Structures are given as structure tokens and as C-alpha cells.
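Anyone? Bumping this.
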Amino acid sequence: MSIEYAPLAADADVVLGEVAGMIREVLEEYEPEDLEIGMATRFGEDLEFESIDLVAMADHLNARYGEVVNFAEYLASMELDEIIELSVGQLVEYIVACLRAVEGG
Amino acid sequence: MSRFLLVVPPLVGHINPLVGVAAELVERGHEVAWVGVPELVRGLSGEHATVFPADAGDVTKVRDRPAGLRGMAALRVLWTDLLVPMADFMAPGVRAAIEEFVPDVMVCDQQAMAGGLLAELLGLPWATSASTPTELTTEYLPGVESWIAEQVDGLRERIGDPKSKIDPRFSPDLVLAFTTQALTGSDIEVGEQVRFVGPSIGARPLVADFPWERLDPARRKVLISLGTANPAAVERFLTVSAEAALARSSQLQAVIVDPSGALGEPGDNVIVRPKVPQLSLLPHLDAVVCHAGHNTVCESLWHGLPLVVAPIRDDQGDVASKVVEAGAGIRLRFTRATDRHVGDAIDRVLNEQSYHEAAQRIQRSFRAAGGSVAAAEHLERLSRKQHAVASG
């Protein structure tokens, strides 16, 4: 839980880097050596995230973005099939949209 | 005297808790019959059990799901390939059994939804048997909750009372939860009809020989068992577990349940068996490594043993979290744990006193909860209450 962040930026590449860092924190000592995290990486099938990992992810997102990004609300809006297929890219795009909404005032 | 009809799926872990309850009800002078797969029920409950047959369809497809199918994807398949078709398959058998046996009260396993649906339709009092606490305590995401509700609604249209709003997984009158709040946590909110009776652990027949003479009193002993899940999924985890045990041969003995025989004979301190008489073995052990199946977890804690849990899917992730939150064990990632993860976790649960203390605290709560006797008393109360309503 010791990630150092730059100021918030509504930029997909920057956000992807931040989200990938959080995922590595969640996987911790179980992180596979060859793990690559890209926009197409899926939380379920590729990362084998379990329910408790999504809870940990929510904590990381909250620590970084505060109330700007409501991950619990985002998950609550999804159908079962969407939860199963959720990708890193979808989360990144959601975060970028939230950040832009705040920037736009 | 009352007549109790027990509705069960062809799943060992769901029949076992009711075996002790059935014996207790008979002991108290009641009449008990089962609906399910007769060979399986009689194998667990005894040759003299009255069992009305109910075709449950093919359950092996879901039991043998590949290792990679986990999480919410596994939940979807559990419902579409097992729970829903099983209810449709079982409904005619359950209905025939009700007509022939004419029960006063039905006791329906949470996964045998045909039971609750037909009890509601026919206006019979019924109780739920929750062999695992997961459905009681899990807060699903709204999208998951509404998808499950759609599946239940479909079943209710086909085999239940379409006008009813009752969930066939939760009797409005009595839900028997075969655990205690020492394990589930006391801060969870459950309905007021839920009764925590603790595990119902009876004297089950010895199902396997065991080389008792090989157990060494000078070394500490762990059981490593991933239950009856499919062999391909468990082979990797068993292999790294055997390596962890071999590296500790001077102070540790491991008994590994290896249904497929993939391990061979790794070494003197590793006893590999296709199956073991688990309840007879547990009193000789110091810790258990398992997949967080609710039966194995409860049987281990019943003996006050700390756990290392590597959940595969379904309710196991939830049960594993409860074990960790109660302080009675360590959680590993099933598909990624190496010999180092398994070995470190075994060392810690054996050597750090807090795991023993938590396991023993749960053990005391289990033994005080009443088990099958308490369950039978609740069922008698439900029967009397219904009788009073009917005649009053």
C-alpha cells in the first residue's frame, strides 16, 4: 500500500499504468513472473481475481482517486455477464471518464 | 409423532448434515423419509432409510468443471448447468413422494429447490437445510442478485406457485445453518428464522482402510485433501504440497488424499491414499490443508485443528474468508500457490499459537451448539406450531 502517485491525469496511458500497479499490489507475492497487464486483460479469466481481490482493488482505487471514482457503484451497475468479462481497459475508460467529468467542472 | 420428508440433491456434502438429523428424529419417535438418489442416500444414511427416488439429471458435468472456470463464471455455470436443471428433474419425484408419504413438515436442502417450490405450492410447512452458510451471508453484486432471481423466477413458473414470492432457498419459518457465528462472524445480518445449530457430525461408516502404523508420534501431522473435485484441477496443488512436505521430513508427516494416483510415493513422510477415513484420522492430526469445502472445514474445526485453505470456487472463497477472519487459518491462491507458499503456511499454522486458539474457540462453539439434536428440536417446534395453526 505504498504506491507514490503523481497528480491526477485524465489520460488513458497514465491511468492504465496506475491500475496495473494496483493489480500487482493485490496479487502481491502471487504475481506471475511473465504477467503483462494491458487494456484487454480480463480480471476474471486472465488475472483470476476473486471476490476479495475486487474488494482490495476498490480500496486501492479509493486511495488514489477518492470519491471521484466509485468502483462499488460501477460494479453495481453491471449485469452478471459484464462482471464476468470485465477488462482492465473498461475500468481504465471508466476512470478516465470520471476524471474528465471532474475536470470539466 | 410427526412425518418429516427430507429433500436432498445427489451431493454428499449436502446429504451428510441431514444424516444425523434424520437419526435424531427417528430416535425421538418420528417418521422420516428422503427424496433423492436412493443408492447415494442409503450409502450415507444406512440401508434401512426410506428413500423416494428423484431423478436429478447429470451432476458430473458441473462437478468436473475445468480448473480455470472460477469466480462468477463458475457461478453462472453452477446455476445454468446444475441447480436449475436439477430442480426441473427432481420436481416429479418430489411431488410423487409428497403424495405417497404425506409429510407434516418438509426439510429441503438449499440446492434442492424443487423441495421449497413444491412445499410452497402445496401449502406444506417446510424448513431449509443450509449445509453451507454462503447463501445466508454473501452479499452478491446487484447484477448477480437479479440474475439469480431470474433463474428462480423461471423455476417458480414451471414447477412452483407463480404467484408466490418465496425464495426456495430460504424457508420463511426455519432455516437450519450447520455452522455457528464463531465461524461466520457475529456481525452478519440474517433473517430471524435462521438457527445456527453447528455442524451435524455423526458416526459415519469407515469408507477406507488406512495404514495407521505409519503415523509417527514424534512428528507433527497434516492432512492435505481437496475433496472430491476433479483430479485434473487438483494435481498441481497436490504436487507442490507434497514437495513442501518432503522438505520438512524430519519434523512433519503429511497424509495426502490423491484420488487420481498422480503423486506416486513421494517419500517416507508422505502417506498418499486415494481416500481416507477422515473423521477417524482427524483426532491424530495437527493441521489440515484443504480447498475450504464446508464439510472438511467444519470437521477440522470440530477437532480444533487450524487450517490452510486454497479455495477453488463456489462457496469455498466465502468459507475461506470466514476461516481467515475468525483467525483459524491462512488462505492461499489455489492455482498459483507454490511449494514455498504451502510450506510457509503449514509452518505458520503449526507454530503460531493464535491459529490453534482460534480453532479451539470455534471448536467449543460447535460442540455447544447442539448439532443434530438442536436441529431436531427446531423441526419438532415447527411441526407443533403448524399443527396448532391447522387445528386452531
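Late reply, but here is one note on the structure posted above: The first helix of chain A runs from residue 12 to 27.
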